[in-house]
Amino acid sequence: MPTADPADAVFAALSDGTRRSLYATLGERGEATATDLARELPVSRQAVQKHLGTLAAAGLVATRRSGREVLYRPTPGPMSEALEWMAEVGAQWDDRLAALERQLARRRSVSA
Amino acid sequence: MDELVERELTVPEGVEEVWRSLTEPDWLGEDAAIELREAGSVQAGDRSGFVEEVDAPRRLVFWWSAPDEEATRVELDLDETDTGTHIRVTESRPLAILDGRDLAIEFGGRSGPEIEFGDSTGPVALAGSLVG
Asked: CATH number for the domain including B59?
């Protein structure tokens, strides 16, 4: 794990859209090489490798060697599970509060 | 890391008006209903739970859960401002620390909330403080 606040590294790593889809793709596949991932995403193998390095530094992916290949896999530790929960619940409240605003606005127009 | 989600919203309505919308909480989910009293039931879509604290028209705390999910705690705080009402929502999952402990939480219907531990060695004292 990085020496700074690990949460900062995780948030920074996932602040990039390409890295998020990379991480999601890795989650679906379970394990993959950078070449596999570059084939599925509109990104060069070199870029994939760089992004994987950032994800690895944040503790979000782990690697192992298999012959002449390096395989990447997501590490669903408590941190990423917590982040997933926070993202999901946060999106739900965004929707609910938008609905609350609409509900209040409807009443405003009725009582006006 | 605290597992906590916080959202804020400011609306032009007064705090009483916003509080009233809590008794008709369509915005909270389909067929949503909250019994605004301590231990009152909370229903919203497939979620159910119970009210922990009511301090009208400023604060509401409840627990809820979807089927097969752990219960989470929701705090709604309303603050009157010069221009309307500031709403702060916080959802947290204090029970996450109990993960892996063969814990079953059930919300009984009219009989009120029940928290059961499948494993008698579980942290009963903690459960007591959560429901007590």
From this structure: 3.30.530.20
